[in-house]
Amino acid sequence: MFIWKNGLEVPDLGTLPGGTDAGIFSIIAFGAGTGLINNSHQAAGTADLPRVDPNNVPFAISHAFLWRKGLIRDLGTLHDGNNSDANAINDKGQVVGVSETTPSPDPELNFPPVHGFFGDHGVMRDLHTLGGKLSWALGVNNQGQIAGVSTLPGDLLVEALLWTTEF
User: Fold this and answer.
1) Which of 14, 38, 40, 149 to pair with 107, CA 20 to 30 A apart?
2) What is the pLDDT of residues 82-121, one digit of tens each?
3) How many CA atoms lie within 13 A of 51 on its CB side?
């Protein structure tokens, strides 16, 4: 992974230990990378690990990361999920995204449930849902307010929501 700045390529940002690929892209932003580099010269993204995802063979497990001053930090996952993805970072280095919450697929969803997360100082916090099994944290401002969506009970309807980070 690299950052392009003023027409010059900045040195490779690296990968997570043992991984082969890292990127600052957002599935939600369709690869635009918007919101994944902040004004404090930090980047958030998703990188693979040297383990195959048992729910998505032959693809690797991937984790959200925070990059700062040449160091890449694995943000992990919620509970015992396999994968996480970063969707946005603010100027404080707080990262939001989505993480699987279990290693196994839910029998009704046919994939592991995911919840939005808030990552701050190396701690990933579960933002939970509005009663359904799924939520996604999509953006975070410098006041720590998080925009996202969640399913309602039954997981057929999706509702927009705003979380605050008063933990």
Assistant:
1) 149
2) 999 999 999 999 999 999 999 999 999 999 999 999 999 9
3) 11
Query: How many C-beta atoms lie closer than 10 Å to residue 28's C-beta?
Result: 20
Q: How many CB atoms sit inside 10 A of residue 92's CB?
A: 16
Q: 122 is written with which tokens?
A: 């190396």
148-to-24, 46, 66, 161 alpha-carbon distances in Å: 19, 18, 20, 5
